[in-house]
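Batch 3, record 17
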Amino acid sequence: MTAQLLVPSDIVERAVPSRRRTVPTRTSASSVVAFAILAVLALGWLLPFVWAVVTSLKTETDAGSTPVSWFPESGFTIVAYLKVLGEGNLLTWTANSLFTTVAITVITVVVSALAAYAFSRIDFSGRRWIFVLVIASIIIPPQVLIIPLFYQMLALNLVDTYWGIILPQVIAPAMVFVLKKFFDQIPIELEDAARMDGASRLRIFWLIVVPLSRPILAAVSIFVFIGAWNNFLWPFIVTNNSLLMTLPVGLQTVKSAYGVQYAENMAMAILAALPLIVVFLIFQRQIIKGIATTGLGGQ
Amino acid sequence: MTEVVAPPRAEVSVQTIANAAPRMPRSRRRENTVGWAFLAPFAVVFVLFLVTPLAWGFYLSFTGQSLTGAGGGLVGFANYSEALGDPDMWRSMGNTLWFTVLSTVPLVLVALAMAVLVNLGLPGQWIWRLAFFMPYLLASSVVSLFWVWLYNPQLGLVNALTGLFGATPVAWLQDTDWAMIAIVVTTVWWTVGFNFLLYLAALQNIPEQQYEAAALDGAGKWRQLFSITIPQLAPTTMLIVILQVLASLKVFDQVYQMTGGGPGGATRSTVEYIFEVGFTGYRFGYSSAISYIFFAIIVIVSIAQFVFRKGARS
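Prediction for the assembled complex:
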């Protein structure tokens, strides 16, 4: 239902940081105040990151000593990072996250795009009510399904496997809706002409629809990727083997395992946060656009 | 999106469209085959991992099923009547509702304030966006590690900062009065960036002329904010409130990771209770029943907002 609330694409275009907006020509007292408020807010929002970085660069002794200090007595050191990379399963978890997230993203986008194309263009019987069913399923909270899904995974022998993590996460009815809306806008004449020339539906889809839909496919991919990369509840339930855990699940176990290793905990958290932040810095525009395009449909 | 109108690579002649053949029964059958072929991959995962567990969970809610497989027999409505008389279930519902109220208000207002301020066009555009949105990209376990450390009673930065103003240290996550508020603060920090982006997109869509006209009429910046910006944002605000309520009702990750529902159940949410009953208490049947009560509430809230929006529009 919330998927009906999609913003028109022109709004989305404008969500991207725009270069047209320029600095106000005159510096009034009120803009100084506004700037100050913004600066304080931004500092507050960055502080947890900065504090985590500072803590991760301390020795455990310094991190665990009072009073709280920004400049440790024995200086800054990367020993916590070396220890975390050398001893823990961090790299394994990262690899697991990368593999499962890429698999989830690829499968979700492919099956959703094919289904959306069928709903948008192919006049098969039952199309209408099946589409209604898919849209209605957006309302189902995944949290409600954890018990029977876990049971199902036990029955299918998929507990503690990659497929057990991946398969229940590839259903994205909201993304089917978003993609169908987009395909609906593509002029049908382009495809009709190709059909007259004898091209198959799959060929048309691949050679005409997919190239025209690159922006929306990218947006959906980004949204699915971020969601899957950070998903906690399902991977947490379906994995017990530490070597199969994804990053968010594995990270959750270190708190108890390492106890009071504050610097190491922060080093782990920073390293775990890094991949997505780097990806964000590189693709900032596309990600903001992607969130604004598909975010409303995806919630 | 301008990309859409770009000519496709396939060579097609526009004239042929006019000669499109009328639909034949045979082509109709073909459409069925092709349509289902396109739908098949999605349909398979949809039925296997959404419809099946949904139905199975409903069935389980009428059984005494445990994780070990014992007690799988039908028990009628026993699980549901037990849930309705279960003080822990009601407490978790109350906590969830309280969390939803406490988190939705700042998640809307702070996001609005951020978006309005950033939209003024002051220098440093990318750093504001980065600062406010970056936490949204973090996994819940990273957020929890950060904030459990910040809230540490002896070594945490939060107590060090409040101490500067003479406040006595608080054990934020272990204190019944503060634990929920601490989790709300963390949640606002973590997810406000999403609402901020939605507001920013909506703000940039308000026609500049409206402000120019108001300025000519002598309206100051504050006046413009309240008589143009906020009314123009009303649909966006409604949307954000709805999405936020639905998201907050499903809270689990940060609560489970930061307090484990404690102290003494003061922060245990409904989803966490479902999880605990199922995976700690091994009572799958009972857990499914609570899941379905929770599901019913989500459906009611969703339908209510849908009707409400329909009413507001007409």
